[in-house]
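In the previous chapter we treated chains in isolation. Here, by contrast, the input contains four separate entities that must be folded as one system, with a combined length of 282 residues.
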Amino acid sequence: MVPRTDPLTLEVVELIGTVVARYHEEYEEAAAEHSLTGAQARVLGLLSHEPMPMRRIAQRLKCEPSNVTGIVDRLEARGLVERRPDPADRRVKLAAPTDEGRGTAARLRDSLHFAREPLAGLSEAERTSLRDLLRRMLGTD
Amino acid sequence: MVPRTDPLTLEVVELIGTVVARYHEEYEEAAAEHSLTGAQARVLGLLSHEPMPMRRIAQRLKCEPSNVTGIVDRLEARGLVERRPDPADRRVKLAAPTDEGRGTAARLRDSLHFAREPLAGLSEAERTSLRDLLRRMLGTD
DNA sequence: CAGATGTTTCATGTTGTCAAGTAACTGGGT
DNA sequence: ACCCAGTTACTTGACAACATGAAACATCTG
C-alpha cells in the first residue's frame, strides 16, 4: 500500500519542502518589516491587484469568511484598506486598498526577494526549463 | 530602485508561489486527517526522526520556546509524545514520540502525497533536471 | 557566587473554526 | 405585480490553537 518512491523523487520532494520553508520564512519576514502579519500581507497583496468582495478573499485564502472580517478589520483600522459598497449588490462589501495600502503593497512586493535573487544564478534556458517543469508538475500545461 | 524582473523570472516566482500554496494545503489536510494541526504534525514529524530538547524544536520551527511548550503539551495530552529528562543536563526536557506517536508520524508521512503524484508525470530525466535546478536555486550545490 | 541557559507560566494579540443572526437577493406560485 | 421561502453575503460571539514577550524558576558554567 505504501507508494514506492524512488530516491530521486524523494530528493525532489525534500528540495521542494526546503523551497517552501524558505519561501515562508522570507514572506513572513518581509511582512514583519512593514508591521504586517503574513495573513494581512497576503490579503493586501490580493487586493492590490483588484478590489474584491470579502467572500472572494475567503475563497482565495481557503478560510471561512468570518475570519476575513477580522483581518480586513485590522487592515482597515490601519488605513491600508477600506470597505466600499458594491453598487450591484447591497449585501456585498468590496475591500479595496487605500493609496497608502497600495504603496505598502508595492514596497512589500519589492522586498520579496525570494527566488528572484536565486534565480538570477540560472541562465535563461535553465529558467525556461524550470518554468516548464513546474508547470507540468502543477498540471498548468 | 525597483529590481528589474523579466517576465520569465516573474512567472517562475509565481509558479513557486503556487507550489508553496498547494504544498501547504495538502500538508494541513493530511494533518487534519489525523486530527492534528499543522504545527503539531510538524513537531511530531521532527521528533520521529530523533527526540530533541524543546529549545531545538523552537529553533527548527523558528519560533519562541514558550510556544513549543504548548504544542508539546497538546501532543503529550494525546499520548503521542512524552517528555523525558536529559541525563546530561537536568534543565533540559527531551521530547520523544511514544510508540503511538511514531505510528501516527509514519501514517502521516505516507498520506503526504504532494509532489509524489505530480512528479510521476515527469520522466526520470526531467526529475533529474528539476532536482538539479532546485539544488542550484537553493545554493545546495 | 554571578551570569547564562532551558523550560514554564502569564498576559496579550492574531488566526482559524463553527453557529447564529441580520440584511439583501432570487425564483417560484398565485 | 406581489409575497414568501430559500439562498447568499457579511458580521458577531464563543472558543481553540498559535505566536510573542516578560517574568519566574531551576540548573549549568566559569
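Residues 53-55, 65-66, 68-69, 89, 91-93 of chain A lie near DNA strand D (CB under 10 Å from a C1'). Chain A touches chain B at residues 2-3, 5, 8-9, 11-13, 15-20, 22-25, 62, 110, 114-116, 118-122, 124, 126-131, 133-140 (CB under 8 Å). Compare these points with the single-chain example from earlier in the chapter.
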